[in-house]
Amino acid sequence: MTTILRVGDRTITAEEIIPLLAGYQLLQPLIREIIIDQAIASINCTPEETSQAIQLFCQKKQITEPKAQKAWLKHQGMSVVQLEALATRGLKIEKYKQITWGLKLESYFLSRKIELDRVIYSLIRTKDSGIAQELYFRIQEGEHTFADLAREYSQGPEAQTGGLVGPVELTQPHPALAKMLRLSQPGQLSPPTRLGEWLVIVRLEELIPAKLDDAMRQRLLNDSFNSWLTEQVNQQLKDQ
User: Fold this and answer.
1) DSSP assignment of 188-227
2) Which of 204, 146, 209 is CA-nearest to residue 180?
3) Cα atoms found within 13 Å of the Cα of residue 1, Cβ hemisphere only
4) Residues 201 and 217 both lie in one domain
5) Mean pLDDT of residues grouped by 10 in the chain (240 residues)?
6) Which of 28, 35, 34, 33 has the alpha carbon at shortest distance from 237?
């Protein structure tokens, strides 16, 4: 058996390394990072990008002085070449995302827009059907405000905010509640509806359509990358 690592008085052999990584839950992260390295292997950074990335990395680690940098490398067991690779890795990953999914973002956004739209809504929940009906009619007739009745009667955390929830994306509420909100117009009051053990009264306050701005582009790039990476890791684990 080939010795590949010695820790204290323990010798780790090649045959032991995979079970050890799995036992310490390090096998999946290792596979993940190797897959990333393979994906970005052909991605290049300009000399200016490399220099700036190393500078920022060293500032973050507080090793801007040559002596401190040398000590840090020794402590990490790394070479200068490995430092450069580590410092530029994040930039290469971002370039890979842009190259792979950048041109697909608009269609991906449109396919997901309905779940990315955000809503602000008012909610009262109760287990008593009689109270639910009474509250609904009192709000409908304008006898009391939704907020006052929510503070007094709602049995969820929304009572603390006068029933107001949001803004939240339409993927966050219960699917049946999300459907109600999606089909409502701002200001529309929905009658008591059963959701599991609760009867809920809902009013859509505001619909905030999702926009494909810079923040959304970055989010969709990250989602695409992470979904792809998860698939790759799962496939590798399956093949082990």
Assistant:
1) PEEEEEEETTEEEEEEEEEEE-----HHHHHHHHHHHHHH
2) 204
3) 10
4) no
5) 79 85 91 96 95 95 93 94 96 97 96 94 95 95 93 94 95 92 94 94 96 97 97 87
6) 28
Assign residue 167 the CATH number of its domain.
3.10.50.40
CA angle 112-231-212, nearest 5°? 25
DSSP state, residue 10: E
Amino acid at 51: S
Distance CA 219, CA 223 (A): 6
Residues 144 and 165 in one domain: yes
Task: Tell me what pLDDT residue 5 has.
Answer: 80
Global pTM exceeds 0.85: no
Computed over its alpha carbons, how large is the radius of gyration of the chain?
27
Are 139 and 198 within one domain? yes
User: Are 182 and 203 part of one and the same domain?
Assistant: yes
Q: List the structure tokens of 18.
A: 């995979």
Please tell me whether residues 179 and 222 are part of one structural domain.
no
Cβ contact 196:125 at 8 Å:
no
Give the structural domain span for 196. Answer: 118-208
149, 138 Cβ separation under 8 angstroms: yes
Residues 151, 179, single domain; the answer is yes
Q: Is the peptide bond before 175 cis (omega within 30 degrees of 0)?
A: no
pLDDT of residue 6: 83
User: Number of folded domains in the chain?
Assistant: 3
